[in-house]
Design brief:
The complex is a heterodimer of chains A (141) and B (559). Chain A has 141 residues and is of the alpha/beta class. Chain A has 4 helices and 4 strands; from the N terminus they run βαβαβαβα. A 4-stranded parallel sheet of chain A has the order 2-1-3-4, with helices on both faces. In chain A, α1 links the parallel β1 and β2. Chain A starts with 8 loop residues before the first strand and ends in an 11-residue tail after the last helix. Chain B has 559 residues and is an alpha/beta fold. Chain B is elongated. In chain B, β9 and β10 form a beta hairpin. Chain B folds into 4 domains: 134 residues, Lumazine/riboflavin synthase (Rossmann fold, 3-Layer(aba) Sandwich); 175 residues, FAD/NAD(P)-binding domain (3-Layer(bba) Sandwich); 144 residues, 3-Layer(bba) Sandwich (FAD/NAD(P)-binding domain); 57 residues, 2-Layer Sandwich (Alpha-Beta Plaits), CATH 3.30.70.20. The longest helix of chain B has 21 residues. The chains are: A alpha/beta (141), B alpha/beta (559). The interface between A and B is large, with 42 and 46 residues.
């Protein structure tokens, strides 16, 4: 694997918790890789399964989904729905023969800057170890 | 018309400029092939959020006539509102602007300037692409009704009504029983340090009757409710028919109930036993002024048993310790010879004045006995002490402090109002710590013991807090501006599966039987997008977070 390989990780972060947690990681000057491309959404439940699949099939090396901790959702129950949907996506990935390890759901609260940095580092390492998304080389009709 | 996008990167003092090569951004972006079709103006500025910066930006937008605006600056949490304010001063719709956080997400996390710059460029490209797909949104203004419906005429409801009623605001107080005052009016007195007797409560009840802006509905209940903050339509069912009311907010003060001690395995007694609940003692005191046994004698020994049903319920009822010590004081005042023993599982006395009250009563000879377990059969009590040693004793009288439970109407009210109930059975607040009086539905508040076990003091706190929220939200004559970034239904795609109805906690979506499609009430919707995630046919669109908009960002993340 080329040492300079920098993966691209689509990171959907909910506005209230994970995005704020990512901000805090920045404010605390914690370091994490450039691979993480944050995309702000109002709630993690906004990211429907097709979205994750689409990002992946379009060639994203990894998809990170960040939400509030269960019970802390700004919209009360949004993240419980996210959790269920994510479980389904994982199953779909596996049954399609895609690498389910390339998608990750993490609960990161607004005060967990260090956790965000840790998740970002860990996940990027996982993706680097797995290499480029093989889907990029395939053609989907 | 050719799009003209203004891209302004902020140096943020040295914060961004020292870590991201802004000049490279200025060179790179306009040279990109993908922007040949549009006009791109890329500039940098020292500190955009400063007064000078805002004026500069305003002038730039006006003189260039931008159709879209992208800022590379700090977190939207810091200055999104600032720059929306700038947009509002110009012809540019604030929803055609996007702030890209190149400070927290680039400058501050990546020590390598080159890498940080690369990420900033990529991030900004996502922003530019996205903003081209954004569309103008316009805020609506709605008239409001400042009146308030209060459900429950206990102390919390009374206090809410008294805090809110006035010239420009009528209060409708709905009480299910024949008189207002709730359980506190059945007490013989408040805590000793809160004043003698019940004068303070009675005074409040009189004030309600005398207030021309409070209309009390006795022996009435809520029949139906539709609407949203500022515009609720409520039907009240009374003995002599239904009344239609329009109100801007609803305060739930439906109070509490008490657990039946006999529902617990540890407690058993029959009617002939001298076993009473605390409320029965209060009523006895109110009626006779004395605590007497059923045979009309003064008890020589009394056991006060705290925490009845606490383990089954799994929470502390907060107020029992105080009132049990109050009852101990009645007994001691009645005759110092009465032997009083309090069995508790740990005292909860956090308010100021509580500790000295406890100490004073201990000094007067009230025995406080902390126990692990207690079994009560009539007036016989057996217990396990903290050290595990068993004990038992026989008393002339036993007084129980039953756990506070949600009032029996909680579930039916929750269903009518479409607000959730927590695991404990009490109404669920918006957030236990930061937003305790609000519920998931804007304009519906929960106060007093309907929220969780509470004494009179805390009930009044909550009532006044809810009143404060209503006073600032529903100002007579002013309009409200509902959230703009809401979800809309594309009727042509909706299959009528009603998945979205189930996931919406705000009750913002209803089903139109005649058309067979879901309908979003844009005033109630908060724009979380959960319904979108549940829609199998892509019939929902969350404004400002539409699929094409997010795909543009995703595209950049994939490049």
């Amino acid at each position: 694997m080329d040492k300079k390989y920098v993966p691209r990780i689509t990171s959907f972060l909910c506005k209230w918790c994970s995005y704020t947690g990512a901000d805090l990681a920045g404010t605390s000057r914690l370091q994490y890789p450039t691979a993480i491309i944050p995309i702000k959404v109002m709630c993690s439940s906004r990211v429907d399964p097709v979205f994750i699949l689409r990002a992946f099939l379009k060639g994203s090396d990894g998809v990170l989904l960040g939400g509030c901790h269960p019970g802390d959702c700004h919209y009360e129950t949004g993240n419980y729905h996210t959790r269920r949907r994510f479980a389904i996506v994982k199953t779909v990935f596996e049954s399609l023969g895609l690498e389910a390890e390339r998608i990750r759901l993490s609960w990161i609260s607004a005060s967990e800057g260090p956790k965000f940095a840790r998740v970002a580092n860990e996940f990027t390492e996982t993706i680097i170890a797995m290499g480029e998304n093989p889907v990029k080389k395939k053609i989907f009709l | 018309m050719k799009a003209k996008v203004g891209v302004y990167v902020c140096e943020c003092g040295p914060n961004i400029a020292s870590k991201v090569d802004l000049d490279r951004i200025l060179e790179t972006l306009p040279a990109l092939d993908e922007y040949r079709e549009i006009e791109l103006v890329v500039k940098k500025y020292g500190l955009l959020c400063s007064a000078d910066g805002k004026n500069y930006l305003e002038e730039e937008i006006k003189s260039n006539g931008f159709t879209h605006l992208v800022l590379g600056a700090c977190s939207p949490r810091d200055h999104n509102k600032t720059f929306i304010g700038v947009c509002k001063k110009t012809d540019l719709n604030p929803y055609l602007y996007k702030i890209i956080n190149i400070r927290e997400h680039c400058a501050w996390i990546i020590p390598d300037k080159e890498k940080a710059t690369e990420k900033a460029i990529s991030y900004l490209r996502g922003g530019i692409n996205r903003v081209l797909y954004q569309s103008s949104l316009f805020e609506k203004q709605l008239d409001i009704d400042p009146d308030v419906v209060v459900i429950g005429g206990g102390i919390a409801g009374i206090e809410t009504a008294l805090s809110l009623a006035g010239e420009k605001r009528n209060i409708y107080l709905i009480e299910k029983s024949g008189k207002i005052g709730g359980k506190s009016s059945r007490f013989s007195s408040l805590l000793p340090r809160q004043g003698k007797g019940l004068a303070l409560i009675e005074e409040k009840i009189e004030k309600v009757s005398a207030n021309p802006f409070i209309k009390v509905f006795l022996e009435s209940s809520l029949e139906s409710i539709i609407g949203f903050l500022g515009n609720f339509e409520i039907v009240v069912k009374s003995k002599n028919g239904n009344t239609d009311i329009k109100a801007g907010a609803i305060v739930v003060a439906s109070g509490y109930g008490l657990i039946d001690p006999l529902s617990s395995e540890s407690h058993s007694y029959s009617e002939s036993d001298d076993v009473y609940t605390s409320l029965e003692i209060e009523e006895m005191l109110k009626e006779h002024g004395k605590i007497m046994t059923k045979s009309g004698k003064e008890p020589a020994s009394v056991a006060l048993v705290h925490c009845v049903g606490r383990e089954e319920k799994g929470y502390c009822s907060r107020i029992c310790c105080n009132y049990m010590i109050k009852i101990a004081r009645y007994l001691k005042d009645q005759s110092d010879a009465i032997k009083v023993t309090e069995f508790h599982k740990g005292l909860c006395m956090p308010d100021k004045g509580d500790q000295s009250f406890h100490k004073a009563m201990a000094e007067r000879g009230v025995e406080f006995r902390r126990i692990q377990k207690i079994t009560q059969d009539g007036t016989k009590i057996s217990f396990t002490g903290m050290d595990g040693s068993p004990g038992n004793a026989d008393f002339d009288m036993v007084i129980l402090a039953p756990a506070i439970v949600p009032s029996e109407d909680t579930d039916s009210l929750a269903e009518l109002l479409e607000i959730p109930v927590s695991e404990t059975g009490f109404f669920q607040e918006m957030h236990q710590t930061t937003d305790p009086v609000a519920t998931s539905i804007d304009g519906i508040f929960v106060v007093g013991a309907a929220h969780s076990p509470k004494g009179i003091t805390d009930s009044i706190f909550f009532a006044q807090a809810a009143a404060g929220r209503i006073l600032t939200h529903l100002i007579p004559g002013e309009k409200i501006v509902p959230e703009v970034k809401v979800t809309e239904v594309l009727e042509a795609f909706c299959t009528g599966c009603q998945n979205c109805l189930d996931v919406c906690v705000y009750g913002a979506i209803s089903y139109d039987e005649s058309k067979g499609v879901s309908v979003v009430n844009e005033v109630v919707c908060r724009g979380c997008g959960n319904c979108f995630g549940s829609c199998p046919s892509g019939a929902l669109r969350t404004k400002h977070f539409t699929n094409p908009q997010l795909y543009q960002e995703v595209r950049e993340a994939i490049r």
